[in-house]
Amino acid sequence: MSDSSVRTGSFAPEDRALLAALLAPLARHVLRRLRLLVRPDTVRRWHRGLVKRRHARRFRPKRPGRPRTIRSIRVLILRLVQENPSWGYRRVHGELATLGIKVAASTIWEILTTEGIDPAPDRAATTWADFLRSQADALLAWPSSTTSCATPEYRSYAPASGYRA
Questions:
Q1: Residue 146 belongs to what H/E stretch?
Q2: Which of 11, 58, 104, 124 could share a disulfide with 15, CB 3.0–4.6 Å?
Q3: Quick one: angle between helices 105-114 and 71-83, nearest 10?
Q4: Which one, of 31, 23, 69, lies nearest residue 48 by Cα?
Q5: 119-148 tens-digit pLDDT
Q6: Are 163 and 156 in contact (CB under 8 A)?
Q7: Burial 11-20 (b: 16+ CB within 10 A, else e)
Q8: At the top level of its lineage, which domain of life is listed (predicted)?
Q9: Cα 59 to Cα 64: distance, rounded to the nearest angstrom
């Protein structure tokens, strides 16, 4: 025991832990027969606190808070935004939900913000040229046929699926 605890009558936490560890295995009636500076109930209370702290330390989570988003999902989010610059975080959230990936919209917002990307880009800035450029693959792959009307100067282009203009 430290000198300060003897002078003041109080015990330091490490002294309490030592006394509790040494005296806790003894039965209560044995503790009552010993001449102690504290009551047996106090020793028991110290021991309960010691066990509680040890248990809490052992089962404490390694990292506080929510676990980080899986790296592959972070990469996928950044790739979607890079390939589709007009998409905002809600559109990315919807596309991921379609793929069966469960990520909160706020998580997507956080990922984009930490990467320095605007989570909600200005949608009014999309021009027809940008739209057609982004849809070019789909438009060129769509089979179409030419249909002639009654007058030869008018031609209409229709998809080959049978739709007539």
A1: strand 144-148
A2: 11
A3: 80
A4: 23
A5: 887 756 677 887 788 888 777 777 665 555
A6: no
A7: beeebbbebb
A8: Bacteria
A9: 12
Joined tokens for residue 82: 């890079």
Q: Is 157 in a helix, a strand, or coil? A: strand
pLDDT lower than 70: segments of the chain:
1-9, 35-36, 55-61, 123-125, 143-165
Q: Contacts by 153-162 with C-beta closer than 8 Å and gap 24+?
A: none
157: Cβ contacts below 8 Å, ≥ 6 apart = 144, 145, 146, 147, 165
Which two structure tokens, joined as six digits, stand for 16? 């309490």
Q: pTM score, two decimals?
A: 0.42
d(CA 3, CA 14): 13
Opening angle at CA 24, ends 19 and 30, nearest 5: 105
